[in-house]
Amino acid sequence: MNSRLDATRNGKPKSSKPYTVAGAGEIVTSVWEIDDPDELVAFRFNVFHMDAESGEVVQQFGIADIPYFALLAQALATLFSIDERLPQELRDDLGCLAHCLDEALGEDVELKSAQPKH
Question: Could you please report the per-residue DSSP string of 24-85?
């Protein structure tokens, strides 16, 4: 199965490279910008577990991964809250979510994130 199709459903990626890649712990996401006029928000992402030593990727998660999902949600909410192509109401909601998660998670966390590629 083509991972580009998994990440984008029926929309076609605007690029063969992800818009951005972010990670928290061993939980990683690739975000794809898609070209789909029927979608209000033209982004899709996939989430996977990557072994830091071997690079092996699986889509199976454990209970210990849950805090990393929260960190990843915080990173994605922050990323999309500043993207001016998205509707202002959605950006405001995502900014609020990112702020709440920041308060809930505290400063003891380390988040890996690549910059968007434009």
Answer: ETTEEEEEEEEE-TT-SS-EEEEEEEE-TTT--EES---GGGHHHHHHHHHHHHHHHHT-TT
Determine whether 50 is exposed, middle or buried from the number of CB atoms within 10 Å of its CB (0-12, 13-18, 19+): middle
Q: Where are the domains of the chain?
A: 3-109
Coil, strand or helix at 23 = strand
77-111 pLDDT tens trace: 999 999 888 899 999 999 999 999 988 987 655 54
Which residues, at least 6 apart from 112, have a Cβ–Cβ distance to it below 8 Å? 22, 23, 24
Per-residue confidence band for 8, with pLDDT thresholds at 50, 70 and 90 = very low
Are 61 and 73 spatial neighbours (Cβ–Cβ below 8 Å)?
A: no
Give whole-number Cα distances, 95 to 18, 56, 79, 82, 88, in Å. Answer: 22, 33, 9, 8, 10
Q: What would the two tokens of residue 40 be?
A: 């209000």
How far is residue 89's CA from residue 7's CA, in Å, rounded to a whole number? Answer: 24
